[in-house]
Amino acid sequence: MSEPSHPRGPGGPASPPGLAEHYFRHEYGRLVAVLVRRVGLHHLEVVEDAVQGALLAALTAWVADAIPQNSGAWLYRVAHNNLMAVLRKDHGHQKILDGAADQGEEPVSATFAGEVRDELLRMLFVCCDEKLPRESRLVLALKTLCGFSTGEIAFRLFTTEANVYKRLARARDRLRDDELDTQTPPLELLRSRLPSVHSVIYLLFNEGYLSARAEHAIRSELCEEAIRLGTLLATDLCPAGPDAPARRAPGVAPGRHRWLAVAGRAGPQPLGRRASE
Amino acid sequence: MAKRKYLVLFRSQPTGGQPGPSPEQMQQMFAAYNAWKEKFKDAIFDMGDQLKSEGRVVTASGVADGPFVEVKEVVGGYMIVSAENFDRAEEVVRACPAVHAKGASLEIREMTGAKM
Fold first, then answer.
1. Which of A103, A149, A257, B90 is surrounded by the fewest CB atoms within 10 Å?
2. In b/e form, how buried is each residue of B76-89, taking b as 16+ CB within 10 angstroms?
């Protein structure tokens, strides 16, 4: 499997003009994670709007012209400017601006695959906060990390768009009320949420895997996302150390990492397309 | 035969709070537009631009600011197509993905070529 957490832009000398599969959706997740980290979780909704606006701008600009060499940095710059323009209107956020208002250049850290992985991971742990209603966690992850719209989430989870919207609103309210949320907690503090993260990824995978044959094409994307997030977790969360069973052999590790074993065994079957990659 | 130029005006109904396309839909639109652009590259003289919603209307009696609430449709963009005739221009515009946007209409007007 290619590195799913860091979609590369086009531009290699041999690569034809075009975008990686799900490029917009995955860039959405990356940009939301990076920008939320910079301005605080209570601005999640504003951040999502800013990122959505940047993708729309890219759609127009890249059709008219061409995909820029560093498409990721292009998107970051536009999303960042959108975000600052909105926050600037609100005088109460002067402090945030002092800290985060820069030249609109993407922080160096956000361009390294490893750091991007950290931002995505951190966002995954935010989505799996035990304070959030259980049914909100999966929906929040699908929206912010995977870049699905409420309509697309509803379609994939066999529920109504209103229901998805309600779950998202509850999650955002809880995150906004949290007094600690101006800074996303560091990864170390988030590790206590590991069981919740596991259950969300497991649920995500099952939602895709257990679907009827007819819906495979659409719902197998849920399996792909579960594997993407699971890989993120497995390769990064447990650095070499005494408590690093997942690192050694994720495919056969017992207990809490069993979901990955399930993913490894069952993955190729519903994802015939992926097996040949 | 010399090609004529046609101005194409994109009109749309204000969406009023409707959610925009999802990232995945945007990627599909991106692919569709690129395919269209490639197919008709000889006919697309100027890709034009999109227009912001604010505007001003100047008349002899003064200036009025938009938005103009009495209009049901707003001009959201333009482009210039070059084609041998109206039918060919229509073919190009018909194939444009923008046609399928909800509530969208595209008006084609031949340019006279007269210089002002």
1. A103
2. bbbbebbbeeeebb
Q: What is chain B's Cα-based Rg?
A: 16
- Chain A nearest-CA distance from B20, in A, is 9
Q: With CB atoms and an 8 Å threshold, state whether A28 touches B34.
A: no
- For chain B, the 3-state helix, strand and coil shares in percent, each to the nearest 5, are 25, 35, 40
Residue A214 — pLDDT band, cuts 50, 70, 90? low
Name the residue among A186, A40, A22 with its Cα closest to residue A6: A22
With beta carbons less than 8 A apart as the criterion, state whether A187 and A122 touch. yes
For A:126-185, CB contacts with B below 8 A are 147-152
Q: Is B89 helix (H, G, I), strand (E, B) or coil?
A: helix
Q: Do B34 and A63 touch (CB under 8 A)?
A: yes
- Chain-chain contact of B30 with A27 (C-beta, under 8 angstroms): no
Residue A17: CB partners within 8 Å, gap ≥ 6? A10, A66, A67, B34
B77 beta partners: B10, B50
The answer to whether residues A208 and A218 touch, using CB atoms and an 8 Å cutoff, is no
The interface pTM score, or ipTM, of the predicted complex is 0.81
pLDDT digits (tens, 9 = 90+) for A141-198: 999 999 999 988 888 888 899 999 999 999 888 887 765 554 556 666 677 788 888 8
Judging contacts by C-beta atoms under 8 Å, the chain B residues touching residue A18 are: 31, 34
